[in-house]
Amino acid sequence: MNKQSANGTGKTVLITGAAKRIGAELARSFHQHGFHIIAHYGTSKTEAYALADDLNQQRKNSCELIQADLNNHQELLDLARRVIDLDCNLDVLINNASSFYPTPIGQCNEAQWDELMGSNVKAPLFLSQALAPSLKKSCGCIINMADIHADRPMTEHTIYNIAKAATVMLTKSLAKELAPQIRVNAIAPGAILWPENSAPNSDILSKIPLGEIGEAAPICKAALYLALDASYTTGQTLAIDGGRTLTM
């Protein structure tokens, strides 16, 4: 593929977990800024194909889909190989895919540990490692999706809290080791895109200085900033939380 013919910028981004929610919005935002999109998905095939169809209608051959179970190490390596085989000079890797659910103490089990640590830490580490040679060629960047609860734990989510704390340290470690060719930063969302089957209670809203649940747009703008404009920034975690960490 000649990526210059696929888009105006000649830049390519791989987004994991791109089929829904923040991942899909990231894909749309980077696409609007002229990027060629490699959209990874796990099980959300219908949503992934709908996203790709939409983006490819807007700009022909501007979005590729790759399916992989990121908790399967061989499939993860196959994903990296397929990205490299596209010969698209990868510029940005966004490790967005993440499992999230409660694990109250007394009910935690090893399968939950493996899944939460796998999607939030193991997959970003090994995918970053596999794609580092490609990113070095383009002097690209890696953006990890962290969480404000990485250092301010959420009740009954111990394994998830640990995993996101590891994501922050992974960001710092990669930033130090991959410099100067590759910048590595993270975004830590607060209460963003509240689940559709519930509503935020007044207690949560009262703890957000800006007084409302966030949307995906600020996350996308932060990612674009880190990818395009933060040329002297690496190893940092940017909280996009409406000020929530001020009251935790």
Give the arrangement of secondary structure elements:
Elements: H1 3-6, E1 12-15, H2 21-32, E2 36-41, H3 45-58, E3 63-67, H4 73-85, E4 92-95, H5 110-137, E5 141-145, H6 158-178, E6 183-189, H7 202-206, H8 216-229, E7 237-240
Parallel strand pairs: 1-2, 1-4, 2-3, 4-5, 5-6, 6-7
Helix pairs in contact: 2-8, 4-5, 5-6
Structure description:
- The protein has 248 residues and is α/β, with parallel strands linked by helices.
- The chain is 45% helix and 14% strand.
- It has helices at 3-6, 21-32, 45-58, 73-85, 110-137, 158-178, 202-206, 216-229, and strands spanning 12-15, 36-41, 63-67, 92-95, 141-145, 183-189, 237-240.
- The longest helix is centred in the middle third of the chain and has 28 residues, at 110-137.
- Residues 1-7 have low confidence and may be disordered.
Structure keywords:
248 residues; Rossmann fold; single chain; 8 helices; 7 strands; alpha/beta; seven-stranded parallel β-sheet; disordered N terminus
Give the CATH topology: Rossmann fold
The CATH superfamily turns out to be NAD(P)-binding Rossmann-like Domain
Major β-sheet annotation: 7 strands, parallel
Task: State the distance separating the first and last CA atoms.
Answer: 48 Å
Counted by DSSP, the helix tally is 8
Structural class: alpha/beta
Supply the CATH class: Alpha Beta
Rg over CA atoms:
17 Å
Contiguous low-pLDDT stretches (5 residues minimum) are: 1-7
Helix content range: 40-55%
